[in-house]
């Protein structure tokens, strides 16, 4: 037998695949994996159609269709007052996950340390480990999951090469505020530490608060990879198109890897997104659209025995369940799916040590009817 030296000996199958498969198998309402159950806009679908008819069916340029990168550059400048050169500082990727993987692979060498905040989206730690890096995680706790920057300072060593931030945060639905950004800057300013800023939920910030993109801060921008996505804002997670922005020197290294990992991303979708992005209403209205869903879902959950945690951004709502049971979150997630017909994500899956604060995550990017049916079932728990 050939020996396999696993790169990820501890990894199982991602919780999203596990819970969506269980939802499909049992016919449960799937509020686990984060994706909408309503269609993307017919206008956008028509634009993809047209792009295919017009012959956008061969390889796109390696870094992405240039007019799309130009649109993104304009959008970023308008929203965040930050300029990225479309030619040298923006690359279109096969979704946020590939951008994250590539950014980590670009700067992390064996034994380099990367600080992450857990519960963390589950692709960060594996990408760090595959690069030979060492994950240094700071565990955050409900209900507010605030970052204690004094503890971050203590985690920093001479081998720290990257800090990964995620705002709005998946799964906690928290956002970074000005004091967090200031504390982060204070830590990295005189050190060789890169920042990977996962901003795929940038447009989903509620209650009049602002998305503090890392691009807004020149002292941070110069050392950061900013990752964003089209799947989340345009309700098309299955298209797997996202992008990464970084200063030219960093982006040049990023592209060396990107070209051999995916080469380029599908052409007709890039062409369509270019046209679609020209109308800013297509993304500026998203916060209001999702806020209504958030409020509706929270209102319904308030009539159950689940206890709501705050939701400042993203399309996730977490709850505690001490009034219902003291079982493990993973066990309750399976029981809710099998016995009550609602699939959810146990938040312990986002801690590398499996820390269980008895918290479950729901995705509320669903039709009203789906939310109604799910709430009806959750009231019986
Ligand atoms: N981002 C989505 C979530 O958090 C799904 C990610 C995935 O399935 N890889 O549920």
Layout of helices and strands, plus pairs?
Blueprint: H1 15-26, E1 29-30, H2 42-53, H3 66-80, E2 90-93, H4 95-107, E3 113-118, H5 124-130, E4 134-139, H6 149-155, E5 160-166, H7 178-188, E6 194-198, H8 218-221, E7 224-229, E8 242-245, H9 248-261, H10 267-277, H11 281-284, H12 286-301, E9 307-308, E10 316-320, H13 329-340, E11 342-343, E12 345-346, E13 359-363, H14 368-378
Helix pairs in contact: 1-13, 2-10, 3-10, 4-5, 4-9, 12-14
The protein binds glutamine.
Essential attributes:
4-stranded antiparallel beta sheet, 7-stranded mixed beta sheet, alpha/beta, Aspartate Aminotransferase, domain 1, binds glutamine, Aspartate Aminotransferase, domain 2, 14 helices, 2 domains, 381 residues
| Ligand identities | glutamine
Strand proportion, as a percent range, falls in 5-15%
Strand order of the largest sheet: 2-8-7-6-5-3-4
The fourth-level CATH homologous superfamily of the largest domain is Type I PLP-dependent aspartate aminotransferase-like (Major domain)
Structural class computed from helices and strand pairing: alpha/beta
Helical amount among residues, as a percent range?
25-40%
Task: Enumerate how many helices there are, as a single number.
Answer: 14
Runs with pLDDT <50, length 5+?
A: none
Q: How many domains make up the coordinates?
A: 2
Q: Give a count of the beta strands, DSSP E runs of length 2 or more.
A: 13
């Amino acid at each position: 037998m050939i020996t396999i030296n696993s790169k990820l000996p501890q990894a199982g199958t991602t919780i999203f695949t596990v819970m969506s498969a269980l939802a499909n198998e049992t016919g449960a309402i799937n509020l686990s994996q984060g994706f909408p159950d309503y269609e993307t806009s017919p206008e956008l679908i028509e634009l993809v159609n047209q792009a295919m008819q017009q012959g956008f069916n061969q390889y796109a340029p390696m870094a992405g269709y240039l007019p799309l990168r130009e649109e993104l550059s304009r959008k970023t400048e308008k929203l965040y007052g930050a300029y990225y050169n479309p030619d040298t500082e923006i690359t279109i990727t096969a979704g946020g996950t590939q951008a994250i993987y590539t950014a980590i692979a670009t700067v992390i060498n064996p034994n380099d340390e990367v600080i992450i905040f857990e519960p963390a989206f589950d692709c960060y730690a594996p990408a760090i480990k595959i690069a030979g890096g060492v994950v240094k995680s700071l565990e955050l706790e409900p209900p507010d999951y605030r970052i204690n920057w004094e503890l971050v300072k203590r985690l920093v060593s001479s081998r720290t090469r990257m800090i990964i931030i995620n705002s709005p945060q998946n799964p906690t639905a928290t956002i970074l505020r000005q004091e967090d950004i200031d504390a982060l800057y204070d830590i990295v300013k005189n050190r060789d530490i890169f920042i990977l800023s996962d901003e795929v939920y940038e447009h989903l910030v509620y209650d009049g608060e602002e998305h503090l993109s890392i691009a807004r801060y020149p002292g941070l921008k110069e050392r950061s990879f900013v990752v964003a996505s089209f799947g989340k804002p345009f309700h098309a997670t299955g298209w797997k198109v996202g992008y990464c922005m970084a200063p030219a020197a960093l982006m040049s290294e990023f592209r060396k890897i990107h070209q051999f990992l995916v080469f380029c991303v599908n052409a007709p979708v890039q062409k369509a997104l270019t046209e679609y992005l020209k109308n800013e209403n297509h993304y500026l209205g998203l916060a209001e659209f999702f806020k209504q869903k958030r409020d509706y879902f929270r209102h319904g959950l308030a009539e159950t025995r689940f206890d709501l945690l705050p939701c400042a951004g993203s399309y996730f709502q977490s709850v505690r369940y001490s009034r219902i049971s003291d079982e493990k979150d993973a066990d309750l997630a399976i029981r809710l799916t099998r016995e009550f017909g609602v699939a959810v994500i146990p938040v312990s899956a986002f801690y590398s040590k499996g820390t269980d604060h008895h918290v479950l995550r729901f995705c509320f990017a669903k039709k009203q009817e789906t939310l109604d049916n799910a709430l009806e079932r959750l009231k019986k728990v």
